[in-house]
Structure formats: C-alpha cells, structure tokens
C-alpha cells in the first residue's frame, strides 16, 4: 500500500494546474510564472519542486520509477512474476486518476520534445526490469532478460494506451491477462500444483530458460 504525503499532494496540485494551462493555451505558451500563480505557489517554490516545465509533465514517472526500484529491491519468490507485479503497480497508479493521465498524454502527443523524453522514460522502465532479472536470476541469458523486459513493457504500454486514448475504464484484469500470456510465451508461468512428496519429478518445457529451470529446481530441493 502506498502512502501519500503532504509533499506529494502539493506536487499534484502543481501538476494539475500545469496540465490545465498546457491544454488551454499550449505547452510553449505557458510560463513557469503562470503555473506557479495557478497552483498558488511562488516561482522559487516551483523550482524547488521541479526543474522545469518538462519535469512537471513527467513528475509521475520519476516517482513511480523510484517506487518500483524499492519494490524490486525486496526479495521475491518468483522474479518473473515480480516484474509483472511491477507493471501492474504502474498501471494502477494511472488508473487511479485516468482523467489526469489522459490530459498528460494529450500534452505529450502535441509536443515533439516531450514525445522524445517519453521514449527515454519508457526505456528506463525496460532497463529496470532487465537489470532486475539479471540480478535475480544469475546465469540467465542476456537476450532472454532483455526480451522479457521489453515484452512486459510493450504489453503494459499497449493496455495503458487503450486507457489513455479512450473514455472507458480499462480494468487491471485486462493487463493481468496480457501479462499471463507473456509468462506463457516465455514458459515461465506458474508451475502446476502437485502433491507434497519426498520424490521430486520435474518436467519443464524445452524452451524454458535454463536460469528459470535452475531456480525452480532449487526451490523444490
């Protein structure tokens, strides 16, 4: 469960004010002074909270990425599922206020420099997942790690765009089902439950990454 602090609330007020101005008069035409006035803060306070107008647009990304780093630094029984849960954490964040997320999406689509920064930001999620898998599964093939990270990120973005481009609420279950498909394609989905016995007979799909086979055998033995 996430905890919202007064500082988070204050930043949200600034973000909301800025996005409303960007939507009504354009990103380039909006000044920092106008944003500060609309949010009820001073110019100096604005710059203590944000580096510039771009940072207001991407404030959520920075906060969510830090939250994911903390989440992935904890121990997880299943690294593949941990990445899927990290994707769901991001989605739930934007699903909590889809209208704000849609306003941000519209602004980003209209400004080339913001689109470029968004591409870099998306890559930061992908790199975070890739690096986590390599730490959590020593010996994993680098191509497997980067491919899984890229596919989870792509599936997440596809479902998120459905939410941002439309007016309907796309439930978390839609993304969960898509992530389950990714796990199945990589043959790293949940193992079937069997009897608790002294003899362990393991059967794995031929395509399952060797690092995942090793992890599952270690867990059983």
TrEMBL record:
Gene that this polypeptide is encoded by: ethR
Record keywords: DNA-binding
Organism: Microbacterium ginsengisoli
Superkingdom as given in the UniProt entry: Bacteria
UniProt domain HTH tetR-type: residue ranges: 8-68
Protein name: HTH-type transcriptional regulator EthR
Pfam families recorded: TetR_N (PF00440)
Molecular function, one GO term: DNA-binding transcription factor activity
Classification via InterPro entries: Homeodomain-like_sf, HTH-type_TetR-like_transc_reg, HTH_TetR
DNA-binding region(s), residue ranges: 31-50
